[in-house]
Amino acid sequence: MTPSVSRKDLLTAMVDSDKSVSKVEIQEVTMGPKQKVLLHLHPCPTVGVIAEETISFQIEGQPVQRLKVGDAFYEPADARVAKFDNDSDAPAKFVVFYLLGKDENETIRILDR
Questions:
Q1: What is the mean pLDDT of residues 50-73?
Q2: Are 68 and 41 in contact (CB under 8 A)?
Q3: Which of 14, 17, 68, 99 has the fewest CB within 10 Å, making it most exposed?
Q4: Which domains can be identified in the chain, with CATH numbers?
Q5: CA 60 and chain centroid, separation
Q6: Comparison of pLDDT for 18 and 37, the residue scoring more
Q7: What predicted TM-score, i.e. pTM, was given to this entire model?
């Protein structure tokens, strides 16, 4: 018997039509229990999937989303990320894909406000 393959749609992200992607950097990120992140942005479009625990995610000016294991997220280039916090008492883990153009290397920028 041949094992079946199943597919589950997680996310469709509309990337700026002028964006040329030359490389994709993929990172596994682990956050400590109850860890909060500072206000930041990514100069490139970013997509990812939660691998462990629960994250509170908010693009500035939008409602907070609760991301659980298996949920995908999208952060448009230069969008201010107000919240990407580990709500759990255990370490949280996610895999993030940075869609970089030619000669782009910066993946994150911490903001003062």
A1: 98
A2: no
A3: 17
A4: 23-110 (2.60.120.10)
A5: 14
A6: 37
A7: 0.90
